[in-house]
Input
Amino acid sequence: MDDPAVVAPPYLAPPFRLHEFSALRLAPGRVGDPASARAFARPYRSVVKRLQEWERRGHVGRDRVPAVYLHEYSAGGLTVRGLVGGLDLARRAPDVAASTVIPHEGVHAGQARELASRMAQMGMNPAPILMVHRGGGAVGRILAERLEEPADHSYDDRAGQRHRLWALTDSDLRARVSESLRETRALLADGHHRYAAYLELQERFPGTGWDRGLVMLVDQDETPLHLGAIHRVLPGADVATIAGAAVDAGFGARPATRTRALEQLGRATPVAGSGDDWRVLDLQVGPDDLAVCLLHDRIIPRLPAEARVVTHHHSAQEAIAAAEATGGTALLVPAVEFDVVVARSAAGRLLPEKATSFQPKPSVGVLMRSPLDE
Output
C-alpha cells in the first residue's frame, strides 16, 4: 500500500465465535430486486421504521427464535454454503499473527468512521460480511444430517439465485459447530470497510448488540468461491509509458498482437494494451507474491503522477472498452491464488485495493440482523 491514509482494520482475538441472532428476512419476491435497496436508503435513521412497515405489509419476515444459520445459495453454476451468525467482536489482538480474522486489504479510516455512523443510524446489519477459511469440511460433516432435512426456507430470488436456509436452533448441535470453529483463522474476503465499521461500533457501544457483527463463513475446502481477477485501466497512461516503467523496474515488456497478448496472460505475465498496441509484461513473480502486487509496488509508482489514476473492471472486455474510450491503457491481471492471498495477509502484507473478486456473493436481504434487538 502506498497511501498513508490506508490502514489495516483492528485485529480480533480468538476464539472465532458465531452467536445466534433473530433474523430478519426480505420476502423472497423482494430479494434480488434492485428496488429493495430503497429500504436502506437515506435518511438512515428511518431504516428501522421502514423495515417495521415492510414487516406489517408482509415484505419482511422475522424469525423469533434466535439461531445460527446454514445458508446455501447457487448462482452461475456454483453452489456455496456458509454459516451465518453474529461474530464476537469484543476482544482485540495485538497483531495479525494473533488475529482470528485476517484482512487482506487496508481501509480508509475516515470512510470506516462514516460508515459506522451510518450503521448506527440504521440500527442494522443489512447483509453478512463474507469470510473464507480452509476448514477441511469439518462443519459440513457435523451438519450432514441437518442438510438432509428439508430447508426451513427455500426459494429462487429475483436475481436468479437459489437459496436454502436451515436455522440451527439445537443447542447441542450449535455447541459442536462452535467448538469446531474455535481455532479458525478466516480471511476477510469482502467488506473491509464494513468490518472496520463493526469494530468502531463495538468500541462506541460495548456491552450491547454492537459487540457482534453479521458475517457469513464459507469453507473453501467444501464449497469454494471462485476467486477472479479485477483488471485495471489507467486513463492517463499510454502503453509505451507503462512498458517503460516496467523496464525501469527490471522487468520485460514484449510487443504482441492483442490476440497473442491475451493468450499469454498468466501468473507472471500481466498484459497492457489499447487498440493495436499491446505488451506482455514479464514479471518475476515468486511463489509467495502476486502480479497485481508487483504492478502496484514496482511499476505504477514509476509513472508520472497524472498517469497513476486507476479504475477497476471485473472483465477484460470492460477494461479494454474503458481504455479505448478514455485513450488510456488496459492493464489486465491474472486471477490471484487463494492460498497466496492468505499467506501474504497472515504475514501482514496487505494487497492493493480491489485485488480480489470472490464470487458469487449472495443477494442482499436473505438474512439481516438488528443489533438493537439484542
